[in-house]
Specification:
The chain is an alpha/beta fold. It folds into four domains: 2-40 and 156-201, no CATH class; 48-142, Nucleic acid-binding proteins (OB fold (Dihydrolipoamide Acetyltransferase, E2P)); 246-434, Rossmann fold; 445-603, 3-Layer(aba) Sandwich (Rossmann fold), CATH 3.40.50.300. Helix content is 38%, strand content 18%. The strands form four sheets. The protein has a seven-stranded mixed sheet, with no helix packed on it. Helix 7 (204-234) packs across helix 21, helix 9 (261-274) runs parallel beside helix 10 (292-305) and helix 19 (591-602) packs antiparallel against helix 20. The longest helix is centred in the N-terminal third of the chain and has 31 residues, at 204-234. It is globular, with a radius of gyration of 32 Å.
């Protein structure tokens, strides 16, 4: 019933005519639910008195008496000036465009007054004020007033009346939606009172209580969605597995370096998951160069030694080939049978490869999305690894999982995800983090350079190349186009750098439009050191590992997101030498562009950068959502309310564990809210819109 009432059109409310309904529709308010979710952007405290003498504290909220009025200016520009006083001082109101107030603000009358004053021309004055004649029941005074976002012909009075009417109309339907023990646990006020106080607070204390309940409630249902998804992912259970770890120990022993404490910890977490009765679903986060891929290879050995197969999927052929080459160096000496598969593998090679995979003659296959196509079959797929998981849709991952018998899943990302988004987007997964970097890595020194100061950047790069190192130059466009304006492009700058700036060095070019064979050849030349400079687009953003490269130059850096800039910067600093990143920008920077570049200057670790990115872009854009309403939470904020989110997560998972019938038909109020009214439900359950 409650959900049905929420769907009523706003035009059904008393006092809402056609024009007001049209104006409300202009800000996406079409029904009562939309109206109630249009929460104030601020509040004005017109309950607590602030006298004229206290104007420095903020807005004055006082009772004033009109003492006199006169005019300033002449003719059509003549403006009414009203003089007034309260018990502490005097001030003036400048009534630009409101000379009609002379008929209302009559000397000797007393009014409620709300305004921000400044001391100017030897008097307190303001041109922005609100007054109301003194009475025993004021409309907009002696209370806390909501200030709503507006658009078009709407004004605060219209919205306040409409929302007040909606609350009065729904009061008889509003029921508490949380279990009674949770209300007692957190000492929540009831929902009816909270809904009224989020719009029209009785006091600042009650406003905080209302915010606390509504934020928790919203995050509770968000986490309930995640919890249901978790139970679906982890069921049905499988027989407990026991793996062999001799190959793992052998590889760890022969490595020319020691694993970091975080790598060892993550391997223990993966081992526990793999031997449990529930399929592993783990997200492995780690900054660029932290050693995630090595952890994945080591983890796969436990499966392989026990007779299972593993599949490693990467988003690009370039990255997949590099993983395959590294795997060959590490794993083939241990007797592991490897294969590589992409859309470019010729049919004459593909057929015997697929037959070997189906017969169990391949232990680990590394490839692109070609791994989940229909004709790829495994004999005993037990472990799926997905690198740079945000590049794949969830259906693609599921298609690969379906080729095995409840296989374990390890998602990896070098784009650290803020904890708030991790608990939301990947709340159905366990999370591992590698924070410690390999011994000997030095922080990358980041410089900002204006576009007309590139000569110094070129000189710095030349000095590094003369020391025997290599450099990247990255551009936002492949080629010049009518829509790119004055943006530099990779193809044009390749010619320019090769002929004008570095004619004595070998320069290579790579971008997505080149044939695959040419891209492989170019990367091989750069990897071997026969090419000194690689000109590129963001195609080198992930996976390229050249320890001898010490310079990363990103031109038009303001056109890249924070995550992309950090990923590109992470292509250098992978060897023992000091590395440098040069972010070249145009002077016409937006405020967001300036903040991005400052963030890159101030932070070197991806986790700090991801938190700043969340503040700048919001959760929907950061998550790559194609749904504009993604996590468009009404009351809660994923940055501010992390502790509430964690409480809600703990409570919902506890409920689903102890009371599996929580969402059954008998919980009618819960089901109505969850199934019909949750503003985030579609975004969370429509997984393709998230990933």
């Amino acid at each position: 019933m409650y959900a049905d009432e929420l769907k009523q059109k706003v035009s059904q409310l008393k006092g809402i005519g056609r024009e007001t309904s049209k104006a409300l529709a202009g800000i996406d308010i079409n029904n009562i639910a939309d109206l109630l979710k249009h929460i104030p952007r601020a509040y004005e405290n017109r309950k607590d008195r602030v006298s004229l003498s206290e104007y420095r504290k903020g807005a004055v909220n006082t009772i004033a008496e009109i003492t006199d009025h006169d005019y300033i200016g002449f003719g059509s520009k003549k403006t009414l000036k009203v003089h007034l006083k309260d018990e502490t001082g005097t001030a003036t109101l400048l009534c630009f465009g409101r000379n009609f107030l002379s008929q209302k603000l009559i000397p000797g009358k007393r009014f409620y007054l709300y305004a921000v004053f400044e001391y100017k021309y030897q008097e307190l004055q303001t041109s922005s004020f609100e007054v109301e004649e003194l009475s025993g029941n004021p409309v907009n005074f002696n209370k806390i007033i909501p200030i709503y976002p507006l658009s078009g012909k709407l004004n605060q009075g219209v919205l306040r009346r409409a929302i007040s009417e909606a609350i009065d109309e729904l009061a008889r339907y509003t029921q508490d939606q949380l279990p009674e023990y949770l209300k007692q646990k957190y000492n929540f006020i009831n929902r009816n009172r909270a809904l009224r106080n989020i719009h029209f607070p009785e006091s600042l204390t009650t406003l905080k209580e209302a915010e606390r309940l509504l934020r928790y409630e919203e995050l509770f249902y968000l986490q309930l969605t995640v919890g249901r998804k978790t139970k679906q992912t982890r069921n049905p259970p499988r027989p407990q597995r026991k793996h062999q770890y001799n190959l793992q120990q052998k590889l760890i022993t022969i490595l020319p370096f020691s694993l970091t404490p975080d790598q060892i910890k993550v391997l223990d977490e993966i081992k526990t998951d793999m031997e449990s009765q529930s399929p592993m679903a783990r997200l492995l986060q780690g900054d660029v160069g932290s050693g995630k891929t090595l952890v994945a290879f080591i983890a796969a050995l436990g499966i392989i030694e026990s007779g299972g197969q593993a599949a490693f999927m990467a988003p690009t052929e370039l990255l997949a080939r590099q993983h395959a080459e590294n795997a060959a160096k590490l794993l083939e000496p241990l007797g592991v049978r490897l294969a590589f598969l992409s859309g470019n593998v010729k049919n004459s090679q593909r057929k015997p490869l697929l037959a070997a995979l189906k017969n169990g003659e391949i232990d680990l296959i590394i490839g692109t999305h070609a791994l989940f196509t229909g004709n790829v079959e495994f004999k005993n797929l037990q472990f799926v690894i997905v690198d740079e998981q945000h590049k794949f849709g969830v259906l693609q991952r599921l298609a690969l999982l379906d080729k095995g018998n409840t296989p374990d899943l390890l998602l990896m990302t070098a784009t650290p995800i803020p904890r708030t988004l991790t608990l939301t987007l990947f709340g159905d997964m366990d999370v591992s983090i590698i924070r410690t970097m390999p011994v000997g890595r030095k922080p990358i020194v980041t410089h900002l350079a204006a576009m007309d100061n590139e000569t110094k950047v070129y000189q710095a790069v030349r000095a590094e190349i003369e020391r025997g190192h290599q450099a990247y130059f990255v551009y936002p466009r492949i080629e010049e186009s009518d829509t790119s304006g004055n943006l530099k492009n990779a193809e044009g700058m390749y010619e320019y750098l090769q002929k004008k700036i570095f004619p004595d060095f070998r320069v290579g070019l790579i971008h997505s439009k080149l044939p695959e064979e040419e891209k492989i050849r170019t990367m091989d030349n750069f990897s071997s050191g026969s090419t000194n400079i690689l000109v590129s687009t963001s195609v080198v953003e992930v996976g390229v590992d050249i320890p001898n490269a010490t310079c990363m130059v990103i031109e038009h850096a303001e056109h890249f997101g924070l995550s992309g800039l950090h990923q590109l910067r992470g292509r250098v600093g992978r060897g023992p030498a000091q590395s440098y990143a040069f972010l070249v920008y145009t002077k016409e920077l937006s405020d967001i562009g300036k903040m991005r570049l400052k963030t890159m200057m101030n932070f070197n670790d991806g986790f700090s950068i991801s938190e700043e990115d969340l503040k700048l872009r919001g959760p929907g854009e950061l998550a790559g959502s194609r749904q504009s309403g993604f996590l468009n939470l009404t009351y809660a904020d994923l940055i501010r309310d992390i502790r509430i989110l964690e409480d809600a997560r703990h409570d919902t998972f506890d409920i689903l564990e102890k009371d599996p019938g929580f969402l059954r038909q008998e919980n009618r109020v819960i089901r109505e809210v969850f199934d019909k009214c949750a503003p985030f439900k579609g975004a969370v359950e429509n997984e393709e819109s998230i990933f």
